[in-house]
Amino acid sequence: MRSRRIRPRSGLRNVQVVDSSYMSQSDHDLLAIEAATIYVLTDSGRILHKSSPDHDAGPRFRLASCASGNIVLVRHDVGESIAHAIEGLAAREPALPPPDGAPVYLNEYRSFLAVEAPVESSDSGLIWTFPDRLDYDHPADLVRSDTPAGDRLLAGLTESGMPEALAKMGFVDVGEFWTPWCVALHGEEIASIAFTVGLGHASAEVGVATVPAFRGRGLAAAATAGWASLKANSERVLFYVASRSNVSSHRVTQRLGLRPIGTDLTIA
Fold first, then answer.
1. How many domains, in total, are found in the chain?
2. Long-range Cβ contacts of 255-258 (<8 Å, 24+ apart)
3. Which residues contact residue 160 at a Cβ distance below 8 angstroms, ignoring those fewer than 6 apart?
4. How far is residue 50's CA from residue 262's CA, in Å, rounded to a whole number?
């Protein structure tokens, strides 16, 4: 088993995602790339904040696991003694084959973090990577960022305001459309949006939000496949992460044939 702390790095048919040299990496190496995609790290390998445009603080602890090892990250503001104790436990954590299993030392991680501040939340998720090629047919019209149609869409939303359904999901203005993005339409309505929640040197991670009234129709998969086909993503290794309990997101990965590479635990 290996345990690693990450260091920072200086309509739709027959969607082609260009192969990257990262695609030949092991699952353990891919987990390391994913961690450096979603987080900005300090020189010592601590989480500084998320790499998303809002620079969310991120979790105080994150453990990503696959059958061949673990990736351990602790946030920069966790005290040194607590961080070392957590890292020591994580070094003994058995590697977990996805998607089953829970960390052996879950309660201990929570207890150590609670010494400094109450544990606000924890979540267990699954991590996927995209195949070299996606084949997904769906009749939805797609609108992509950095295109004339995308510019018109943003201009219209700026002028008329965000639809209520999107605002309820947190899209208060067009600044929430983190580029690059792809929208799937149902008629003239925005049904689902796939947007970039993490961006690395040669990697990207997608986040997907679908209006409740349009869920279960394959629109999230259409938007996600459209995002993967964007020119900006053509040379990148791409990731998708979802909570274990998010069954709708799991269906997206099944529709697109994404490959599971590991699990993650986050504690905030």
1. 2
2. 255/136, 255/218, 255/221, 256/130, 256/134, 256/136, 256/221, 256/224, 256/225, 257/131, 257/134, 257/135, 258/128, 258/129, 258/130, 258/131
3. none
4. 20
pLDDT tens readout for residues 199-238: 999 999 999 999 999 999 999 999 999 999 999 999 999 9
Q: Which of 129, 153, 177 is the last residue of a domain?
A: 129
Q: Are 50 and 205 in contact (CB under 8 A)?
A: no
Give Cα 123 distance to the centre of its chain. Answer: 14
Residues 161-209: pLDDT tens digits? Answer: 999 999 999 999 999 999 999 999 999 999 999 999 999 999 999 999 9
Q: Over the stretch 123-162, which tens digit does the pLDDT of each residue have? A: 999 999 999 888 899 999 999 999 999 999 999 999 999 9
Chain segment 41-57, per-residue pLDDT in tens: 999 999 999 999 999 99
Residue 268 lies in a domain: no
Instruction: Note the pTM of the prediction, 2 decimals.
Output: 0.90
* Exposed e or buried b per residue across 230-247, where buried means at least 16 C-beta atoms within 10 angstroms of its C-beta: bebbeebbbbbbbebeee
Q: Please tell me whether residues 170 and 120 are part of one structural domain.
A: no
Instruction: Pick the last residue of a domain from 95, 129, 163.
Output: 129
Q: How far apart are CA 91 and CA 205, in angstroms?
A: 26
